[in-house]
Specification:
With about 100 residues, the chain is mostly helical. The protein has helices at about 5-20, 25-30, 35-40, 50-70, 70-75, 80-90. The chain is globular and about 35 Å long.
């Protein structure tokens, strides 16, 4: 049985993409084809997840991860170094 990305996963994918992670790296952490990650980023799958990620920022990431449980179940909970990189990239982005 293959893993299907949830809406909360899609929010997390947007945040990781904005943090500079490659699509194939994100896909590997969810054990899905990178085309599914691309579908999320091109808004063919889970439309509206980009807006949720943009408005809620890091708060939605924690909620999304807890709700889906996928990271915790797989033992992939991000470490301190990951959060440092996310925060640096998140606040370094110029506003569009």
């Amino acid at each position: 049985m293959t893993y299907r990305l949830t809406f909360n996963d899609a929010v997390d994918i947007w945040l990781r993409h904005w943090a500079g992670e490659y699509q194939h790296t994100i896909a590997a952490s969810y054990d899905v084809n990178r085309a599914r990650v691309n579908d999320v980023l091109n808004e063919r799958l889970h439309t509206g997840s980009k807006a949720v990620a943009a408005t809620n920022g890091l708060r939605s990431r924690k909620t999304a991860v807890r709700a889906s449980g996928s990271w915790a179940e797989r033992g992939l909970w991000p470490n301190v170094r990951f959060w440092r990189i996310v925060l640096q990239n998140y606040f370094a982005r110029p506003s569009a």
